[in-house]
Amino acid sequence: MEPCDKCAKLEGAPADFVREAGMTLVGIGQCSGVVAIEHYRCDDCGTLMIRQLAGDPTEQIWTAIAIARKVC
Ligand SMILES: [Zn+2]
Q: How far does residue 71's CA lie from ligand 1's centre (Å)?
């Protein structure tokens, strides 16, 4: 399945861009007690996205990492 339009738009967007709805937070990664990465799954197309919140400002973006297949 291809990423939906919303995910395609989110790919590469700044991390401070917040998608309104339809994304489920599925995990977080912490660095020194601070949330550095959030993982989201799109409710529409199943794309897994990471939102990087730490590190170099140019790396603080949304990135699509995989398309999850629905198993049920
Ligand atoms: Zn999507």
A: 17
What is the pTM (predicted TM-score) of this model? 0.83
Range of the domain at 33: 5-67
CA of 8 from ligand 1 middle (Å) equals: 7
The whole-number mean pLDDT for each consecutive block of 10 residues of the chain, a chain of 72 residues, reads 87 88 93 93 93 93 81 56
Whether the CA torsion 11, 51, 42, 20 is positive or negative: it is negative
* Under 8 Å between Cβ of 64 and 51: no
Domain count, the chain: 1
Between the CA of 12 and the centroid of ligand 1 the distance, in Å, is: 14
| Assigned domain for 72 exists | no
